[in-house]
Recover the amino acids of this structure.
């Protein structure tokens, strides 16, 4: 797993690469929590290079979402691979996140709103 | 050979001193002998002079006889007729020189002076023309002659410093000589007459000087100039003269007047050159002989000393050899009672002692070598316990020690003690390494102990986990009721860790059976806890018979209430009516089960809106239902099945599952379960299982009585 952080126009972008499974889910969680900060941040998690995410990774995202919700922070997911999209759909978590086709769209969506 | 040199020098010095003394004494003796010889010589010359005087006097005797035997003179003497005497004497022609013209004619000896005395001592005639001529003899000297006792002979100094040799005789009345003395006749001859006689007798060069040293005779002699310098008129002595390469013995004889008192000195120079040379030769020969004897003696002494010292040298050499540790050298030493014998005795003893020491030293050395070999072997054995690098360098050092001890030079020059020193060094290094290793080992032991403690803790934890897992497993229904309508089989294959998958199968009423398959997010104890909670809740609420959707809704609210950890669980919950074969179900984020119809078609159950449970409260859950045909198979599974990876990171996937399920169309529940799971196992082919694999198979036989 490889995670890079960048700030694009006031929006934090976390680019994920590789696999997220129970082994590195806590690391992923750490990145997310840091990126969320005090919770008011707008965060885009770009999954263009993500090949797999396990339930542990989903959990990490849920934790980040729960942290963001009270303070008005928003988490968007972008460029999910089809099988990962299916996981989100299947588990019903799609409704919990804003999902965009690519990073730019996600950033733009945040900027617009 | 300093001692030898000293001895020889000492002997030389002593000999020199002794020789010097001897030579000195012999010189003195020689001098004394020379003195005596000179004295004898002088005496001899003196005698010769006396003889010369006597000889001169003898010449006078003839004249005396003529005078004494002349009757005229006799008569005139008695008559005391002076004139007659004078005439007669003249007539006789005895006088030479002044008075006697006719003397030489007569052919007889002449005299230079004549005196005639009467019986009463009156001088009746004197050849001296002087008026008051002194008599040739004084009364004292005359009286004995007149008395007929003796003849006077000797030297007389006349006034006017004329020396004569004089002879006097009594005149007897009768010619025979046995008569009365009627007078005396004295005649004299010039002193040189005696000198001439002396010359003739001795063959030497004769000189005479007067009382005061004024020359009297011999001045014509070429030696005179040399002689005159050496004249001591009063001394009776012998001197040595060297003139023109000749050596002369100059005898000096003081001559006394008849009346006493020195009147002249006669000197006789004798050529002794040859004698002196001979003497010198003899002296040289003597000296050479002495020297030869000395040299011979010294040579003999030297030889003797050397011989003895050589022996001593031998003894000293033997001692030195021994002191340098070469006791084995053999030296022949003489025995005996003298010092050398004692030395050689001591040297023998000492040599024996040294040999003994060498022997024991050799023994000791051999023993030390044995010890050293032993120690080395032990060290090599010990080295085995060291780790590789240290062992190699230690063995290298041991080899070095070994080579040094076998190297003759180093062993001899350093001795056995140093070999042990080298060994000691190697040993101390070994000890250092061993202690270092000991420290490391101690540390390792400590670490191991800690690790062991950790392991024990881990083991106990694992044991607890094992227990927990076992409990968890046993909680899942292992045995399904034998129902005419329904054949059920299920299995949960946990991943390495305790997982969160579960299935459940329980009646909720007389005719309805609840069937559950669920997947808790995460692994380990938290997931297991959550799983148990979820399972319990589901059972509890399901048994209240509110139906699948409501059950899901309530369970979701309950689980979401205190869920800090954000655990969630995907659940498929179904209720099967055994009378009708109607399966009512609700799905919370779980994989939709597969249904296989009798003709082999595999289709998913309808998708059902519903989020995974425990994420958020008040979420909607839909409910769907479906009537099963007899012979239908429903396969419930978790994503551990579809997401099983093989060695090349490929997922098993839905497609393969569908295929595998499709193949079980005629199988019993158990067979179908086994078939699917073995297919998955074949696919993963030993790759590590990352997630629990859970599968539940239902085969609907049909309603009872249908």
């Amino acid at each position: 797993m490889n995670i890079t952080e960048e700030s694009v126009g006031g929006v934090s972008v976390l680019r994920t690469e590789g696999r997220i499974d129970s082994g590195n889910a806590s690391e992923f969680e750490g990145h997310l929590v840091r990126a969320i900060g005090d919770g008011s941040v707008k965060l885009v998690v770009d999954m263009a290079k993500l090949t797999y995410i396990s339930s542990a990774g989903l959990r990490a995202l849920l934790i980040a979402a729960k942290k963001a919700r009270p303070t008005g922070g928003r988490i968007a997911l972008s460029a999910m691979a089809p099988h990962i999209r299916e996981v989100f759909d299947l588990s019903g978590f799609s409704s919990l996140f804003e999902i965009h086709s690519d990073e730019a769209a996600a950033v733009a969506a945040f900027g617009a709103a | 050979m300093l001692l030898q040199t000293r001895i020889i020098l000492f002997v030389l010095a002593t000999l020199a001193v002794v020789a010097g003394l001897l030579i000195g004494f012999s010189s003195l003796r020689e001098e004394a002998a020379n003195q005596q010889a000179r004295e004898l010589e002088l005496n001899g010359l003196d005698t010769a002079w006396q003889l010369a005087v006597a000889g001169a006097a003898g010449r006078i005797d003839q004249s005396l006889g003529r005078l004494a035997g002349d009757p005229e003179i006799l008569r005139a003497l008695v008559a005391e007729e002076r004139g007659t005497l004078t005439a007669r004497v003249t007539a006789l022609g005895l006088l030479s020189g002044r008075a006697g013209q006719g003397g030489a004619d007569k052919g007889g000896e002449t005299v230079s002076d004549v005196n005639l005395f009467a019986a009463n001592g009156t001088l009746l005639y004197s050849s001296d023309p002087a008026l008051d001529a002194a008599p040739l003899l004084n009364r004292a000297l005359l009286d004995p002659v007149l008395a007929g006792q003796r003849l006077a002979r000797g030297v007389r100094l006349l006034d006017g410093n004329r020396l004569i040799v004089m002879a006097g005789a009594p005149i007897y009345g009768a010619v025979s000589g046995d008569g009365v003395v009627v007078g005396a006749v004295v005649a004299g001859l010039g002193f040189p007459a005696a000198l001439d006689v002396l010359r003739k007798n001795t063959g030497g060069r004769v000189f005479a000087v007067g009382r005061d040293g004024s020359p009297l005779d011999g001045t014509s002699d070429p030696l005179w100039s040399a002689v005159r310098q050496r004249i001591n008129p009063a001394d009776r002595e012998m001197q040595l003269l060297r003139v023109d390469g000749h050596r002369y013995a100059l005898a000096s004889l003081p001559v006394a007047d008849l009346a006493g008192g020195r009147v002249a000195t006669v000197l006789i120079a004798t050529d002794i050159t040859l004698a002196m040379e001979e003497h010198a030769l003899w002296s040289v020969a003597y000296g050479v002989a002495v020297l030869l004897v000395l040299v011979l003696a010294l040579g003999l002494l030297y030889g003797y000393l050397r011989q003895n010292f050589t022996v001593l040298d031998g003894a000293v050499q033997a001692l030195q050899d021994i002191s340098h540790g070469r006791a084995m050298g053999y030296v022949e030493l003489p025995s005996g009672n003298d010092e050398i014998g004692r030395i050689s005795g001591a040297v023998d003893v000492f040599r024996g002692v040294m040999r003994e020491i060498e022997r024991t030293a050799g023994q000791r050395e051999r023993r030390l070598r044995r010890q050293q070999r032993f120690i080395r072997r032990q060290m090599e054995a010990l080295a085995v316990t060291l780790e590789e690098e240290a062992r190699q360098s230690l063995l290298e050092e041991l080899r070095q020690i070994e080579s040094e001890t076998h190297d003759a030079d180093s062993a001899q020059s350093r001795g056995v003690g140093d070999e042990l020193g080298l060994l000691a060094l190697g040993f101390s290094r070994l000890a250092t390494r061993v202690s270092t290793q000991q420290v490391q080992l101690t540390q390792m032991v400590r670490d191991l102990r800690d690790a062991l403690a950790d392991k024990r803790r881990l083991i106990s934890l694992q044991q607890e986990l094992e227990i927990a897992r076992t409990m968890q497993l046993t909680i899942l229904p292992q045995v399904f009721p034998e129902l005419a309508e329904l054949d059920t089989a299920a299995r949960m294959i946990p991943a390495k860790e305790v997982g969160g998958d579960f299935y459940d199968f329980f009646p909720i009423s007389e005719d309805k059976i609840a069937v559950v398959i669920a997947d808790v997010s995460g692994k380990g104890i938290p997931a297991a806890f959550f799983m148990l909670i979820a399972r319990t809740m589901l059972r509890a609420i399901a048994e209240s018979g509110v139906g699948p959707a409501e059950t899901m809704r309530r369970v979701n609210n309950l689980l979401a209430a205190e869920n800090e950890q954000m655990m969630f669980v995907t659940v498929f919950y179904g209720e099967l009516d055994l009378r009708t074969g109607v399966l009512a179900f609700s799905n919370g984020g779980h994989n939709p089960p597969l249904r296989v119809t009798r003709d082999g078609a595999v289709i998913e159950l309808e998708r059902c809106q519903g989020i995974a449970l425990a994420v958020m409260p008040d979420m909607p859950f839909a409910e769907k239902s479906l009537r099963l045909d007899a012979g239908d198979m429903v396969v419930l599974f978790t994503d551990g099945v579809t997401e099983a990876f093989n060695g090349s990171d490929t997922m098993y996937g839905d497609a393969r599952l569908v295929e595998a399920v499709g193949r079980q169309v005629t199988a019993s529940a158990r067979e179908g379960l086994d078939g699917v799971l073995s297919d998955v196992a074949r696919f993963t082919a030993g790759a590590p299982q990352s997630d629990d694999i859970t599968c539940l198979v239902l085969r609907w036989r049909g309603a009872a009585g249908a």
Observations:
- Chain B touches chain A through 25 residues (CB under 8 Å).
- The radius of gyration of chain B is 88 Å.
- Chain B has 16 helices and 20 strands.
- The longest helix of chain B spans residues 2-69.
